[in-house]
Amino acid sequence: MPRLPEYPFLRLALLVLLCAAGGAPLAAQPRMLRIACFDADRLYDTVPALFYDDSDFTPDGRMHWTAGRYGRKIRDAAALLDSLASDIAAVTGVENEGVVRDLAAACHEEYCFLHRTLNRFDGLDIALLYRGDRFRPLGAREGRGWLFVVGEVFVPGAPPRKVGVLVALDARHAAEALADRREEHPALPLLVAGRFAPELARRFGLHDAHARAERAGRGNVRYRSGWRMRDRILVDTLFAPPRVGDVYARRRLVSPHDGAPVPTYDRTTYRGGVSRALPVYAEVELR
After folding, report:
1. What is the per-residue burial (b if ≥16 Cβ within 10 Å, else e) of 131-143?
2. In this structure, what CATH number is given to the domain that contains residue 152?
3. Alpha-carbon distance 175 to 199, whole Å?
4. What are phi and psi of 268, to 5 degrees?
5. Which residues face 206 on adjacent strands?
6. How is the beta sheet containing 32-43 ordered, strand by strand?
7. How far apart are CA 262 and CA 255, in angstroms?
């Protein structure tokens, strides 16, 4: 077995992943629905926008965001989504539908996608990539930093189940969006992904899929004081408590020097990474 870095969180995560590679497949088990949340970390195209200022992310801009760099990030992000093997993937930090289309087309998995424009000053949106045989959207709406999709989920051995999927791009409006969706759809089971505070799980009757990993000291972003679980997945208590919920770590996603996720840019210095945040994932049992 290759030698692992000496970072406790990364070492543990990689050991789990290496063992999984030789045992059960990463994809969800028959009655399980696998959900992931991935921050694409300002995935802009190279074309200047008309309604907001994205001039930094153009070939002549401050970041020198070229077609080559864009193409590399699309390929790397698509490879990451493929390796996550999720049935539903919430992807935040994407500029527009064209970017999402490029991302889905670069995936080897046959993902459908749903995108909505959020009209933010930075131009960043949310998309949902999903397997068409596992999820069928019935309707969608968006608000200040969030996307809500009502759809049906399908897993072998269980009847179709109508659910609501809420994704939040930032924590400022996450609690309000969750409260409003719960009030509008009190009987609809919710699957929630993004920047949600852990206390919202108790307040709105949800399981925090990452509570155990967080108590163990794991997180998906690195700060000076250590790891922090910035993004998480919350699951309605109408479902069984998630048996699997963790941070998705791979050597290629982190720096060999300090174990932190490698961003695309460190301020204005191009680093060539996929994101400054590791993806998170969970498996939900439908019964």
Report:
1. beebbeeeeeebb
2. 3.60.10
3. 10
4. -105, 5
5. 236
6. 111-116, 125-131, 88-94, 32-43, 280-285, 244-247
7. 6
DSSP code at position 261: B
176 confidence band (pLDDT: 50, 70, 90): very high
Task: Tell me the two tokens of residue 195.
Answer: 């920047």
Q: Which amino acid is it at 197? A: A
The arithmetic mean of pLDDT across residues 256-268, rounded, is 94
Helix ranges restricted to H, the chain? 8-22, 67-84, 97-106, 174-184, 199-203, 211-215
pLDDT 10s digits, 55-95: 999 999 999 999 999 999 999 999 999 999 999 999 999 99
pLDDT tens digit string along 208-229? 999 999 999 999 999 887 999 9
Q: What is the DSSP letter of 263?
A: P
* Domain span holding position 122: 8-14+31-275
Looking at residues 189-201, what average pLDDT do you find?
Answer: 96
- Residue at 267 is within a domain: yes
pTM score: 0.88
Six token digits for residue 266: 């460190």
Q: Per the structure, how many domains does the chain have?
A: 1
